[in-house]
């Protein structure tokens, strides 16, 4: 059940609100002074606060209400606050709404309209708290992953990537082939590296090869090696990728582009762990963990007879699907900042552009975008027009979404306050934050203004 706190020195108003809310099955606590209200807020959690603007008989300026509003915000930065005001104090109430109050209630009020407002705010408050809980759980899962496994320098915050990396670390110890699927530039190689780093072959070599880029006539020698004189130009013996990867991991990227004759030779090695170098009859044996990756639909390739079904069964014991960058927006801003040199940051408008763009080239395109913007920018902060992205205005996310996906750093906040001579409103505008949010950030980082 939702819980509402009423702070008003007028007993008639307290009773009227208590009766109205109780009819709608909303639990209430009503007190007559700011001191009592703040004490309750310290002891209990409320989903909504209704507060008066004046409490002393001879004071009608609304200053007491303003002070109470800011005191409540210090105790609970997120609880919705409805201001109870007379028409003579509307201007003060409107100013507080601009600072983060949820709404104002003018005396006398309309019960039906008031309940619509209260119910909407309670639903929103519940959704916000659930989201915050989800974010906290996600961060806890990420910290646990980083403590427990070797994740290298991979950057991710999204729930999709946390789940993917969790599975990758779980299958790392199992000595079975893994197929990593996903669009070009989405980070398939990073997932392969995580598997290698947490596997029994972690101390062994990690050999990468683009299967689709192998010259058709040299596939066998590239993968399995060749003896001196095995073909024109083979002036000395050559060690193949499988031998180089012995007691380690072989990462075959773009496996879907491997020609059929290469697929046949690869299948034999996976079945027996044995092969011969080109031009040799000596059978060699290796112990190699195979990880393959592709952006192709291999099931369709089997139907089209461009990929062997028996090979697909061999390499696809475990399949890990890497989502496109556009499907995990929580990763965009952290990745963008990661690709920038130390000291370089993004304006709030630039972050909005990054979140609005659909990133057909995925993480690789984002990295190139950041490198290009960094070269063009002459200032420590990169602007939206330096990103070179074509964004429709309708696609731009609201400020609240930016705050959800990316939290301004302490350095950014200090710089904004310095540039704006400590004026909160101007600094908040530059950062793209509400004043309420900026106050929370200042308190969080213990920044003296």
At the first level of CATH, the class of the largest domain is Alpha Beta
**Relative helix content:** 40-55%
- Integer tally of domains: 3
Please state the average pLDDT score.
85
Ranges where pLDDT stays below 50 over 5 or more residues in a row are 399-406
Can you list the strand order of the major beta sheet? 2-1-3-4-5
CATH architecture of the largest domain: 3-Layer(aba) Sandwich
Portion in strands: 5-15%
Query: How would a textbook summarize the main sheet?
Result: 5 strands, parallel
Q: CATH topology of the largest domain, anyone?
A: Rossmann fold
Gyration radius, rounded: 31 Å
Strand elements, count: 14
CATH superfamily of the largest domain: P-loop containing nucleotide triphosphate hydrolases
Ends apart, CA distance between termini: 40 Å
What does this structure look like?
With 449 residues, the protein is an alpha/beta fold. It has 3 domains: 3-129, Rossmann fold, CATH 3.40.50; 154-323, P-loop containing nucleotide triphosphate hydrolases (Rossmann fold); 328-445, Helicase, Ruva Protein, domain 3 (Orthogonal Bundle). 47% of the residues lie in helices and 13% in strands. The protein has 19 helices and 14 strands. The strands form 4 sheets. Strands 2-1-3-4-5 form a 5-stranded parallel β-sheet, sandwiched between helices. A 5-stranded parallel β-sheet has the order 7-8-11-6-12. A hairpin with a 6-residue loop joins β9 (274-276) and β10. The chain is elongated. It starts with a strand and ends with a helix.
């Amino acid at each position: 059940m939702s819980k509402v706190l009423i702070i008003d020195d007028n007993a008639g108003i307290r009773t009227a609100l208590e009766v109205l809310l109780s009819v709608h099955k909303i639990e209430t606590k009503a007190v007559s002074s700011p001191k009592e209200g703040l004490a309750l807020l310290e002891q209990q959690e409320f989903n909504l606060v209704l507060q008066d603007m004046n409490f002393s008989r001879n004071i009608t300026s609304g200053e007491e209400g303003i002070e109470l509003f800011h005191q409540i915000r210090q105790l609970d930065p997120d609880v919705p606050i409805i201001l109870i005001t007379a028409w003579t104090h509307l201007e003060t109430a409107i100013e507080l709404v601009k600072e983060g109050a949820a709404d104002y209630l003018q005396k006398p009020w309309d019960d039906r309209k008031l309940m619509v407002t209260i119910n909407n705010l309670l639903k929103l408050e519940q959704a916000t708290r659930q989201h915050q809980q989800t974010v906290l759980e996600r961060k806890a899962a990420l910290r646990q992953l980083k403590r427990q496994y070797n994740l290298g320098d991979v950057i991710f915050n999204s729930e999709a990537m946390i789940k993917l990396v969790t599975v990758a670390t779980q299958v790392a110890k199992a000595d079975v082939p893994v197929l990593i699927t996903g669009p070009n530039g989405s980070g398939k190689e990073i997932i392969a590296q995580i598997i290698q780093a947490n596997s029994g072959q972690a101390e062994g070599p990690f050999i990468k090869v683009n299967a689709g880029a192998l010259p058709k006539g040299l596939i066998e020698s590239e993968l399995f090696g060749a003896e001196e004189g095995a073909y024109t130009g083979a002036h000395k013996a050559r060690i193949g990728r499988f031998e180089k990867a012995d007691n380690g991991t072989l990462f075959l990227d773009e496996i879907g582009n491997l020609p059929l004759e290469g697929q046949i030779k690869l299948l034999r090695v996976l079945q027996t762990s044995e092969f011969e170098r080109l031009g040799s009859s000596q059978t060699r044996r290796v112990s190699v963990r195979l990880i393959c990756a592709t952006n192709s639909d291999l099931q369709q390739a089997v139907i089209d007879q461009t990929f062997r079904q028996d090979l697909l069964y061999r390499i696809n014991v475990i399949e890990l699907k890497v989502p496109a960058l556009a499907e995990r927006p929580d990763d965009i801003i952290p990745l963008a900042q990661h690709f920038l040199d130390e000291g370089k940051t993004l304006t709030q408008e630039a972050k909005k552009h990054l979140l609005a763009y659909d990133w057909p080239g995925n993480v690789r395109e984002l990295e190139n975008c950041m490198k290009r913007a960094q070269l063009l920018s002459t200032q420590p902060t990169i602007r939206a027009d330096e990103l070179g992205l074509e964004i429709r205005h309708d696609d731009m996310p609201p400020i609240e979404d930016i705050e959800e996906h990316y939290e301004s750093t302490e350095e950014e906040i200090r710089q904004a306050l310095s540039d704006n001579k400590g004026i909160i409103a101007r600094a908040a505008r530059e950062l793209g934050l509400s004043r309420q949010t900026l106050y929370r950030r200042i308190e969080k980082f213990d920044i003296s203004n």
